[in-house]
Amino acid sequence: MVEAHAAAAPAAHGTRSGTVPPPLPTWAALLCAAVAGGALLVAFPPYGLWWAAPVGVALLALAVHRRRLRGGFWLGLVTGAVFFTPLLSWTNLHTGMVPWLLLSTLQALYFGLLGAASAWISPLLDRRDGLVRFGGAGRAGTVWNRGGWAWPPAVAALWTAQEALRGRTPFGGFPWGRVAFSQDTSPLLRIAAAGGAPLLTFAVTLIGALLGYAVLRGVRGGTDPRRAVAPLAAVALACAVAGVAQAVPLAEPGGRSVYVAVVQGSVPRLGLDFNAQRRAVLDNHVNATIALGDQVRAGAARQPDLVVWPENSSDIDPLRNRDAGQLIDRAVEAVRAPILVGAVLYSPETGVENAGLVFNPGRRAGDEVPKYVKRHPVPFAETMPLRSIARLVSKEVDRVTDMTAGTRPGVLQVGPATIGDVICFEIAVDDLVRDTVDGGGQLLAVQTNNATFDESEARQQLAMVRLRAVEHGRDALMASTVGISAFADTTGATSGETRFDEPAVILAELRLGTERTLATRLGAIPEWVIVGLAVAGLVAATWQRRRRTTVPVAGGDTSGSAPRPDDRSGDNATPNATEGGKEDL
Predict the structure, then answer these.
(1) Is 32 annotated in the active site?
(2) Is 311 assigned a catalytic role?
(3) Which terminus of the chain faces fewer neighbouring Cβ atoms within 10 Å, N or C?
């Protein structure tokens, strides 16, 4: 009989199976965690080094492997802080440091949870210490968790689950900084057409986890050449994931072509008071559109089928203010095409609404104006939860008016095209975009106002537009007050990109989409399957920490079992002198 019992004494440091390293020293783990945050940061615009994202995932996985729960949490928090604080620095431009640091810290806390969860699943890869008994005699030894191939997909699933949680909590969530949004120039972007942003995040983080697996298995390999197989296989699988991405078909819009104009009218000045001269902002967009109409009549420009103005292009309610409505009608008649206008509406019945309005040629007073009302007002920007508490944080709180959320998807008929309209931050929310396509949207239009931010925020937002175009097989556009405005096709390529804080009018021929991609048809299913995988990984790691094991040794028969010791530290292996001792974190 051969029994494997939990070791009452320190396990032998090495066996024929290889040497199991201790967790990284505290200083090395902190360094890895910090560099992981930096790698994630440069993967996003404006840097755009998309390949750095899986490197960041691998580094965090190495930092937290075999740590205690609290150690994993603090290391994840370090990664999150290094990543989010500069990524979200555009929120600090006009509101002061406190809101920016609070938001960055809140987002980093989710990375702390990710680090703790990633530490917890270490047993899926790691070995078990045991006392190997031959009859009545025994010796300490190491029993390998053979293969450990469940670990890489479990790590990737935890990343995706963290994004699912962060995108929904608290107050509706803040899904900025998802790994998928760093891949707008990556060959992996095609994966979005199969399973949307969640599947793309899973694929990128799976590559990172496989790289981490290769490092861990390589360190354990010792001098046994057979141990080189696992690291090489992990690298080969990472390459295979990237290769499979190239096989994902991209949608080709099958509908008619439409010629679209986007007007970037600009504002008198950037900042929170961009709309202090609301009439000037409206005039800018009206005048630029009238000038386009003049060019068309002169033969210097092609007649557009429709025109799109950005969010906040009319902060004077054109449905209640006659002058504002007449100005827009004048622009419509000058360009001889319907205009999708971004407007703020005020009504005693509905309150304040952030809306997209369709002004058609020949509109008469009293005619119904089709509209879409923003369904997800941004917490602490367009609504103010916990206002009395928030007032203690920033004096700007009372500048925020609670906006009324819409209830219907943004599907609007604008001339010959059915537009899937989303407003500003809604482009980051999967179901809000998908609902417009399910509702019949043939083009995606993102109306946004970047006047309170900067170019880096605009480029991060444009990356999301590119992903959505691929995900749903719809040509797309982003119309901004100050930039960046641009068009994106179903391959993710952009055209007509404007310069930041400069007035511009861009035009392009776009194709109307008619078919739904696999990602559109599947909806949220890929995300929930991956979240289920993450839960399964946590459960499996918990079971492996507690289970009774029977392990064959040296060709003998296997029988009997014994419980492992209570793992008070949260590590999957009992700390001892030969395994690196207690952790500092």
Answers:
(1) no
(2) yes
(3) N
